[in-house]
Amino acid sequence: MFTHITGIGQRDRREKGRNNKPKVYLAVEIILLALVVFLISLLKIKFVTIFAALAAVYMLIISCIPRYYRVIKRQ
Prior knowledge:
By secondary structure, the chain is mainly α. The protein contains 3 helices and no strands. The chain has helices at residues 13-16, 21-41, 46-74.
């Protein structure tokens, strides 16, 4: 008896239902933070620019990345 092998090379069934929205939202948040830092850097005040960049990195680490991982875990 011959069997038809169709399952070789296919992705896991759970992977098929995942959407890319969390990645898109994370990318948008990173782009917006970078845009804010860039706009602040146009003021030509180095101290404020450095403070804004550090605040953006802090916000990314404390807020954006954990939210991304929570959403991924829920899916």
